[in-house]
Amino acid sequence: MLQRILRPSVLRPVAALLRPATAAFSTASPLRNLAQETVAPATPAAPIATAPIETPAAVEADPSISLLPLLRLQGAHYITVHINGFPFLVTKGDQITLPFRLKGVSAGQTLKLTHASVLGSRDYTLKGNPYINPEIFSCKATVIEETAEPMRIKEKTKRRNRHVKKVRSKHSYTVVRIKELEVLDV
């Protein structure tokens, strides 16, 4: 009974808000028929005369080549080399432990690393897209050893089951030392 009494009084203010507004209060612009309007054709602008810029062929191919002598003069260089898809940021003398065994290499062998994405120094950085041209730098590494980690044993169990499975793993690694890193004269 109480709901029937309160309900009409609650709906009266809401019903007043839902009435359509009169045209005098409208702020919308009148609608136009765009199909009847005509548009004047655009006048072509006069072409802009440009003088050809003379640049050497090497700089035209890659504008960063002009800054290469400045990079060469810097002292210590760093490089991001990619070995089997793994990026390694190294400098001369660094030792890298690769998380895999390189096939066909033995200890003492020298490798030439040609896939590099970043070459830089303290003040200058050369970035490749995706890699830098291998004619710009020389990076050589020596294989120190091929080693393996100690045997790891992990116990795997399942809930509410007394069976324990022992999983053994022993990953092999290749250890490499960067023996040469220099920016070549192009």
Automatic annotation (TrEMBL):
What cellular component terms from Gene Ontology apply here? Answer: mitochondrial large ribosomal subunit
Give an example GO molecular function.
structural constituent of ribosome
Which parts of the chain span the membrane according to its record? none
What domain of life is recorded for the organism? Eukaryota
Q: Short name of one Pfam family for this protein? A: Ribosomal_L21p
Q: InterPro entries, alphabetically? A: bL21-like (IPR028909), bL21-like_sf (IPR036164)
Q: Which PANTHER family match?
A: 50S RIBOSOMAL PROTEIN L21, LARGE RIBOSOMAL SUBUNIT PROTEIN BL21M
Q: Which family does it belong to?
A: Belongs to the bacterial ribosomal protein bL21 family.
Q: What is this protein called?
A: Large ribosomal subunit protein bL21m
